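Submission checklist for the structure archive. All mandatory fields must be present; incomplete records are returned to the submitter.

[x] Identifier: Glucose-6-phosphate dehydrogenase assembly protein OpcA
[x] Organism: Streptomyces chilikensis
[x] Residue count: 338
[x] Sequence attached
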Amino acid sequence: MKLDLTDTTAGEVNKALLHARRASGTPAVGMVLTMVVVIDEEFAYDAMRAAQQASQEHPSRTVVVIRRHPRSPRDRTHPRLDAEVRVAADAGPGETVVLRLYGELRDHAQSVVLPLLLPDAPVVVWWPVDAPENPAGDALGALAQRRITDMDAASDPLAELEVRAANYTPGDTDLAWTRLTLWRSALAAALDQEHAPVRGVVVEAEPGNPSAELLARWLRARLEVPGEVRASAGPAVTAVRLETEPGELSVVRDEGPLAALTLPGQPPRSLALKIRPTSELLAEELRRLDADDMYEIALRGGEAPAGAGAEAAAGTGSAAGAEAARRPRTSPTNDREK
């Protein structure tokens, strides 16, 4: 069911949500969080589709905030709110509210979003593109327990990485880090099988890939060895090579969803290492809402998280580093590694 409201208010939008739920035969609210998506009209369709697919695992109220660019001098000052309310078949297991803000209201989106948040439920804010330099300091980001950005969408991803590092606040995370989950799991499992000390790390990726830089920083911090990023043809991260005393330990993904894991003195073996869609990355991030210490360590190149002991940033030897590197990421409802 879909309802359109023109020149409306947040109170009218709430009434429309209640009416739509009752009309569709689902008056109960069974959602576990509110996701706020801040996006331009150009990218709104893809972002809403990804959020709706992620809500299959985490039923949520998705509030999409679109700041419309004014076309006339009057539009630059006259505040107006248009909204779409989608429930049932039009919104999957949750419900979707699309807010289009005009005029001065564009600078006060939090005043419209706040009345639409689910009571006593976590709030997640996601910026698919054009994230603020300090997400926690943003008026919408201040409402959230979890703030999701994506360095890959920036015009200069590596410069964006340094901005994220300089402005990190517990609760921040980035999809460039989430894209590394399968790589981190594969490397941790490989190091469990090869107990020789690691002497050096090389990460190969397409030029300017922020995930590769994060992975190199994380491995340097956890294994306490030198590491570097080398350019490859891509796409994304294509290989990680660890230099050990018996020989090279490598995970190589040239193309397709399969990678080759090679341990010293053993034949290569295949493992699944696909490039995942945004909806899967979002669903993974929504499994936990606490601070991501490993992301902070990767951002800052090995510095201990605020309030953590020195051992939190250390990872001595291959096995010890691998064990620390794959600390379980948990949520109130399940214990799953990120």
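[x] Structure attached
Curator remark: Confidence is low (pLDDT under 50) at residues 307-338. Residues 10-23 form the longest helix (14 residues).
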